[in-house]
């Protein structure tokens, strides 16, 4: 049972943030570039160095799968070794890789893979830890439309198979949000705060319109 | 990159030829012919003197190298990871880096006497700063992104050390090893020359006393041969093995 409360204040980049993530939440995190979306993900993942400046209450045994913007596989270890380092047992490696369409790649090094394959390998590692919370930082960035579509279907299928798992996904494409998310966070302002935190409506339209609307909303009434 | 091995087969024989002609021309015991040097080498080897002194020198090199690498790596990593440690130790490091090797050797011999411990300590103290500086660079270059990854996926301290840090530190360790050996070889000889009664350095000292250039050259050549042997059989294979992953793909990081 996941019930994650995120409370941040006096953080150097983020303003006062108070929200919660529950089981089955599929959150799409929107906001202008450089506003601190990755910082917020890192904070939630417990990677923030300024721990002293914030109050972060997270249930301790939380398992997190984090798909960083780069694959962050160890470049000097094969995919098999990379997976085994996060606790995958040797006989399960092939099965886990085949779930992301990387059959027969277990003994390749990460740099022998294309960008899309490396990202899928990193996704396999996220899921290998059987996470309560999946963090995706721009998972479709710099993939060509076909590869992005492929990865999106893959993630959608993986999410369907794990109804209890919560997800937070940074993206700029409303299309991705509609497909993957059931809730929207909008981060904006200096310091950055969650200006909008609500279930996602089917008629929210494309990202540009939503973001423009959210920004007006944020300016007029300072939600968050 | 190393030059083609072919060049060695041209340049080295040429050098020997020039040396032979010069020795024949000058005809003095101050420049013995290659043959004379080889005979000296042979007789030293037959009597067992060469092996004995070489073994003692190698032993000193090995002990001081191991100590200097271990301590220097530890200090360097601490300095690279902790700004406070760095602030405290940096002045000391600068001092030691600029202190002539000879001063350390003489001081230790004066303070502790002409004993083995003083000899090895002198070499170690001379080498530690270089290792520490190199390893500090290594520690500073550790990829923060991989650190974050290791935190998220709860790597143990041991996993972090062996799978995340070591591969990144390896080039620095190799640089420290190479620089270290090159320096330690030379300092060990000086230490032996000044205060020990065995080892190659001591033999060179004896040869110097009686202007025995043939012995001087014979021991030097034997020494160079052993150093090159270690380079070829230990260091180079080690380096190739550990950098194999780099040769695939573009070597793109993280």
TrEMBL record, chain A:
Higher taxonomy: Bacteria, Pseudomonadati, Pseudomonadota, Gammaproteobacteria, Oceanospirillales
PANTHER family documented for this protein: ALIPHATIC SULFONATES IMPORT ATP-BINDING PROTEIN SSUB 2, TAURINE IMPORT ATP-BINDING PROTEIN-RELATED
Keyword tags: ATP-binding, Nucleotide-binding, Transport
Domain of life: Bacteria
Gene Ontology MF annotations: ATP binding
Domain ABC transporter: 2-214
The protein's name in its UniProt record: ABC transporter ATP-binding protein
Similarity comment: family membership: Belongs to the ABC transporter superfamily.
Pfam name, any one: ABC_tran
UniProt key word RNA-binding: no
TrEMBL record, chain B:
Subcellular location: Cell membrane
Residue spans crossing the bilayer: 7-26, 61-80, 92-112, 206-230
Pfam families per record: BPD_transp_1 (PF00528)
Principal subcellular localisation of the protein: membrane
Coiled coil (UniProt feature): none
Keyword field: Cell membrane, Membrane, Transmembrane, Transmembrane helix, Transport
Protein name: ABC transporter permease subunit
Originating organism: Billgrantia campisalis
Native organism taxonomy: Bacteria, Pseudomonadati, Pseudomonadota, Gammaproteobacteria, Oceanospirillales
């Amino acid at each position: 049972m996941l019930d994650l409360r995120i409370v941040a204040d006096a953080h150097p980049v983020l303003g006062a943030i108070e929200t919660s993530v529950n089981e089955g939440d599929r959150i799409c995190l929107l906001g202008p570039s450089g506003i601190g979306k990755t910082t917020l993900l890192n904070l939630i993942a417990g990677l923030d160095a300024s721990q002293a400046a914030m109050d972060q209450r997270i249930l301790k045994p939380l398992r997190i799968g984090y798909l960083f913007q780069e694959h962050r596989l160890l470049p000097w270890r094969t995919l098999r070794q990379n997976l085994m380092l996060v606790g995958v047992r040797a006989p399960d490696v092939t099965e886990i890789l085949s779930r992301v369409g990387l059959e027969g790649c277990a003994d390749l090094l990460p740099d022998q893979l294309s960008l899309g394959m490396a990202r899928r390998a990193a996704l396999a590692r996220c899921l290998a830890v059987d996470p309560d919370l999946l963090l995706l930082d721009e998972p479709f960035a710099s993939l060509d439309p076909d590869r992005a579509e492929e990865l999106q279907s893959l993630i959608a299928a993986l999410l369907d198979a794990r109804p209890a798992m919560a997800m937070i996904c940074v993206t700029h494409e409303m299309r991705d949000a509609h497909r993957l998310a059931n809730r929207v966070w909008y981060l904006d302002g200096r310091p950055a705060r969650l200006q909008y935190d609500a279930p996602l409506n089917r008629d929210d339209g494309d990202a540009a319109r939503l973001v423009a609307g959210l920004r007006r909303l944020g300016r007029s009434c300072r939600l968050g | 990159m190393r030059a083609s091995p072919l060049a060695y087969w041209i340049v080295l024989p040429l050098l020997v030829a020039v040396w032979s002609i010069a020795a024949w021309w000058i005809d003095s015991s101050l420049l013995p012919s290659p043959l004379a040097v080889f005979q000296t080498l042979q007789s030293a080897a037959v009597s067992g003197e060469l092996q004995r002194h070489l073994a003692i020198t190698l032993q000193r090199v090995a002990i001081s190298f191991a100590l200097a690498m271990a301590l220097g790596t530890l200090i360097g990593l601490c300095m690279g990871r902790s700004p406070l440690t760095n602030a405290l130790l940096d002045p000391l490091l600068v001092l030691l880096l600029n202190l002539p090797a000879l001063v350390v050797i003489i001081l230790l011999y004066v303070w502790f006497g002409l004993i083995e411990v003083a000899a090895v300590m002198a070499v170690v103290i001379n080498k530690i700063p270089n290792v520490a500086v190199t390893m500090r660079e290594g520690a500073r270059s550790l990829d923060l992104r991989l650190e974050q990854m290791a935190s998220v996926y709860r790597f143990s301290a041991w996993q972090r050390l062996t799978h995340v840090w070591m591969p990144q530190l390896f080039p620095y360790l190799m640089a420290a090893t190479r620089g270290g050996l090159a320096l330690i070889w030379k300092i060990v000889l000086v230490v032996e020359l000044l205060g020990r009664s065995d080892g190659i350095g001591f033999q060179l000292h004896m040869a110097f006393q009686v202007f025995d250039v043939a012995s001087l050259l014979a021991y030097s050549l034997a020494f160079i041969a052993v150093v090159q042997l270690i380079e070829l059989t230990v260091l180079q294979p080690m380096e190739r093995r550990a950098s194999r992953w780099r040769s695939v793909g573009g070597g793109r990081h993280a």
